[in-house]
Fold this protein.
Amino acid sequence: MKRSSYHKLSAILVSIAVIGSALTGCGTSSKVSANTSAVSPKELVFYSAQGYDDAVAKAFQAKTGIKVKLVDMSTGPLAAKIEAEKSNSHWDVAWFDGDATMQALDNQGLLLQGWTPKDAANLTQLGQSLVPADKAYYPTGVTAAAAIGVNSKLLPRSEYPKDWNDLLKPTFKNALAMNNPSVSGPTFPYVAGMLNLMGDAQGKEFFSSLKSKGMKVGETNDVEIKSLLNGQVKAVTIQDSALVAAKAEGNPIDIIYPSSGVFTLPGVIAINKKAPNAEAAKQFMEFVLSPEGQKVMLDPKNGGGDSYFDPVISGVEGSSVRQNDGINWLKVDPVKSAQNENDIKKWFNDAIIH
């Protein structure tokens, strides 16, 4: 996911307020906030919150000769920008992690529906399950909204949790941390997924029990990983790609995928229903879903932690650093999540944070 954290909700509101005064870009396929109202119709305007977006844009531009204007933001402000511009939009392609967020844009009629990329047949079974019925967006890879990361120097292997409920054991009293779903994008599908997996009442009781046992709630993956490595906690429940990236750096982290399942957080890409350059947008999406585009995405030199995703394109192999087999993936219904997002976040804020 683009940067392992998200701005606070206030930052999202600020981004809406200042949408008309975006910074002027200084060249194509560079990470800038662009004044898209002045963009040539022959130029592909690409809104993204992915770490590898600049590298993919440059590779596509080199392959096709189509100029790309990249508008680079975190997911929350990016979605707010799209909504604020809906009456006069100039973007062609949007790409970020989280199908519930993309579904919310689709619910407003902002996305091109019913189009099938030529490489869609190459999607794995998991990938196909993440395509909405109206084909308004497509998955480009998947991470776990949350896995369990433990400090291998602090916790004996015999005490490693095997499933979510193991976090309720005395071992993790005052020694567990997670993020706030109102701030951290990946955390919302984790919370929503647990309410779906356990049932609403039991799921809420699970988080309430963790709170009563001293669970800490932070805001960013970076902070949680630092607290894990500093010994402030023995375990964290955060997006797995952030854990993989930290482990790849040589840190004493082991990653557990609970046996009852982990919740999908797909990267999703969509085309503006009113895209000024729709044909170029379709070419770009097909490039992203091709083995050539995936190769660019999977290089950590291009995407950092974002490159440690699980591919959903047949024949494309994920990084050897992460576990790619034996994961029990559970899909979080994006339609239901989009409908219940505000209520779930309010409940978590009222019952768990305060």
About this structure: The radius of gyration is 20 Å. The mean pLDDT is 89. The longest strand covers residues 262-271.
